[in-house]
Amino acid sequence: MRNGILAAVIAVLVGIPGALRGQVCNIRVVTDASPDCHDMESFLLSATGAWSTPKDRCWALFYWVHIGRRQTSPMIFHGVEVTDPIRQFNDFGYTMCSTVAGMNCALWHNMGLPVRFWDVTLHTVSECFYDGRWHMYDNSMSALYTLCDRQTIAGVEDLGAVQTCQLSGGRSEIGHVVKYHCLTATSPNGFLTGADCARDLDQESRCFRPNGLKLRTYYNNWDWGHRYILNLHQGESYTRYYYSLGDSREYFVPNRGKDPESANPRYHIRANGVWEFKPLLTPDGLARSAYIVSNVTALSSGMVCPGQSGKPGEIVFKITSANIATSQIIRAKIRMQSSDDHVTIAVSTTAGTNWRIVYDQAGPVDETIKKLLIDEVNGQYEIFIKFILQANKDPEAVGISDISIETRTMLNAKMQPQLRLGLNTVFVDLGEPSDCIVIWPDLQGDSYRQFIIEEHNIASEKEHAGWRGVMFAQKPDSEAFTVYRVQCPRPITGLVYGGRFYNRAAGGEIRLSHSFDGGKTWQTDWTLTDTSQPWDVIHYATVRDIAPDSHEVLLKYSLRAPQAGPMACSIYSVRMEVRHQATGPTFEPLDVTFTWDEVQSDRSRITRSHRQRIDHVPMRYTINVGGVDHPIVKSLRIECPINSKGTHHGYSDTRSGLGQRVTDVWQELGRNLLIGKSYKINVEPTGAWGADDPEGRKLTDGVVGPNYAGGTSMRYAVGFDEKNGPAEITVDMQQPQQIAGFGIHITAGWPWWDALKGEVRDEVEVWTSLDGQTFARQGIFNLNLWRREIPINHMLPDDETAQGWNYILRLSSPVTAQFVRFRITARRSLGVTEVQAFDRIDVRPFDLRILLPDESP
């Protein structure tokens, strides 16, 4: 269908009237509870702009990357891991160590910091350079390590080195820094708190042994350039649900042929969005809704017919899905009175270069159709839907009405705009008033050919190697190129294009150029001849000098490789974004609706929502969230209503003044006074799953167990259950000590109750004594947690549960004691891995410091 349709599309594209109304472009909705993920610059400004030092800015990035991804089978798209942070934060979140190491390289580089990419033993990490040295941030394991000063973030080569300090008792060990100076572990020589499973520091230290370090000087596994594009027409809405709408094929973009969530369903990363578009088909509304109109007449009844008989009438609607599309449903009522009448529906995901017919019917017909499209649209961000109407005699004998287009998307539930307990600020604005066409082709094999209009001397590997480019010159010492044509219905206003490139060959060249005159003349925008490492170069050229009234641009990617080897000069990926005038004024009123569940003191939930009329931009407003804990945000709906008369704005109920914003805290624990001290237990441990204690050392050995239940967790614990009655663990510190608070780490034998869901029914009290005879009760541990109570510097496990947890009881004022007794009333089979008494517990307020787009760094 390609050649005949393409010629018709060209004629239609350049013949569109200019005075159209009804489109609102580049909508931005941001809250002060989470970063702005619209593009790289916005993310870095919002997440790090309020911090002044590189160390603080890198910690902020570490925190938000921890929130926005999970350690699981990485998302593979176009043959490579998705390492563009903006694409991951908006759509995916599925990463492995190499994936997130590349994402960090991209973030740091765009923050102005040098980066390095390492393969270590069975692991991959990256590091950045500031303050005169290299620093490693392991967002795969959510691990941060310092030097022995407990301040300086360590580099890769520090981690496996032989070192010593007082925390290791003066012992010199390989991997000392990892074992004893991890900021995100349960304890020295303990377990990582924010990992995907129970990972002990001894295991992690072996990853960084010097003979296993491989610095990849040639490669950073990074990517960037994607931006989140949200455009609406009147009558169109987009709802982002913060949960999955289903497990069937129409709700996910497959990863290696499967639902990416299926590798780790416990993470609940995948959520779904729904576009709802019912185009206006009235005489004054069609131009507001359609992207392209040619030879059609809109009747006052809401039916569209061919403008004249014997000639096709065409309407093209464009869905820019913002998040990656998974499926689409096209509904319409079609009427044809004659066997010579014809209606065709086709879709294009190549900006009109190729079309795929999804409905093709001759008359007579009077039917309502529903077409579910999956393979035709899955994995795309831009979908053209074209209706072709042809009447043999009477134009009004052929008509289409009641068109609705529902598009499903896949999104990363962890990084959508969030709300927190208390007062939240929401910021809404529009970007530049331009629509755009984005081309992001798969370069493997011959997939790219559906996008191009010309090529010469080009070859592409069937499968992407990953560490080098995939497209190259077939014959060396001869120019090779591909040419893409982008045609716009209204004048072009801007152009950004480029990609990711590989050039290690002396004499090799990669060149970007454009033409506004159909290829008669070419303007070179960028050339890569440098062969210095890394051979992993990302560049985007911005073209501002646009020929007047240009509707078409040609974009050329050229290569010239020397005889030494064509693969040494190649292209990883390309992305082109051509911006053009929108269909109307710079602003139309919008409605923005957040819906959330408020958590009550009994853990039940109340659903509330808030709908705000956006009658000017930029606009700030507040949403006050009640309950006792951070809310569970359910959806964010943005719509451009045709008529909002009678619509209720504000809260879904009458409550508004619900409280102040919750302040996060940063918690640091001091020295554990019970390490190495002897203790007595009044009952015999159960020994279940290895939870025995024959030497009487487990509970004060200084090793706090993992925050995951099951597996090997009970081997580090002393086991108790409801059968042997309350257990008392009494520790003798040998001399009186001043105590600021206590800790006890509990893991589950069975059942695996989750403290964040309020399921734990066990009880633990703590008592102290100076003489071992008379004990004073110091308090009872809170074994069921609220999310608002978790310190901001504590990394939650990837599954966001608390089935094993180090509970802290902070005293209002210190107490002096020699004996500490923990009284445990178990309601199940459980294990205690460590009991603790701290000489200090420092808790200070901490502000996440999200900058909204109108705030200066």
Task: List the defining traits of the structure above.
seven-stranded antiparallel sheet; 9 helices; Jelly Rolls; disordered N terminus; C8orf32 fold; mainly beta; 857 residues; single chain; 52 strands; nine-stranded antiparallel sheet
Describe this protein's structure.
The structure is a single chain. This protein has 857 residues and is mainly beta. Among the domains are: 39-215, C8orf32 fold (Roll); 434-581, Sandwich (Jelly Rolls), CATH 2.60.120; 671-839, Galactose-binding domain-like (Jelly Rolls, Sandwich). It has nine helices and 52 strands. A hairpin with a 7-residue loop joins β22 and β23. The longest helix has 15 residues, at 54-68.
Biggest sheet statistics: 9 strands, antiparallel
| CATH fold group of the domain at 39-215 | C8orf32 fold
- Contiguous uncertain segments of 5+ residues: 1-21
What's the total count of β strands?
Answer: 52
Give a brief description.
With 857 residues, the protein is mainly β. Among the domains are: 39-215, C8orf32 fold; 434-581, Sandwich (Jelly Rolls), CATH 2.60.120.1020; 671-839, Galactose-binding domain-like (Jelly Rolls, Sandwich). The protein has nine helices and 52 strands.
Write the layout of secondary structure elements.
Blueprint: H1 2-13, E1 23-24, E2 27-31, H2 40-48, H3 54-68, E3 70-71, E4 76-77, E5 80-81, H4 85-91, E6 94-95, H5 97-110, E7 115-120, E8 123-130, E9 133-138, E10 143-144, H6 156-159, E11 162-163, E12 173-174, H7 176-180, H8 201-207, E13 214-215, E14 232-233, E15 236-241, E16 270-277, H9 286-289, E17 292-294, E18 296-298, E19 304-306, E20 313-320, E21 324-336, E22 342-348, E23 356-362, E24 365-373, E25 382-390, E26 398-412, E27 422-430, E28 434-439, E29 452-456, E30 458-460, E31 471-473, E32 480-487, E33 492-503, E34 509-515, E35 523-528, E36 537-543, E37 552-560, E38 569-581, E39 590-599, E40 605-614, E41 619-625, E42 632-640, E43 650-651, E44 664-669, E45 678-681, E46 718-720, E47 727-750, E48 763-769, E49 776-780, E50 805-825, E51 829-838, E52 841-846
Parallel strand pairs: 3-6
Antiparallel strand pairs: 1-14, 2-27, 4-5, 7-8, 7-13, 8-9, 9-10, 11-12, 15-16, 15-42, 16-26, 17-20, 18-19, 20-25, 21-24, 21-26, 22-23, 22-25, 27-41, 28-38, 29-32, 30-31, 31-38, 32-37, 33-36, 33-38, 34-35, 34-37, 39-40, 39-42, 40-43, 44-52, 45-47, 46-51, 47-50, 47-51, 48-49, 48-50
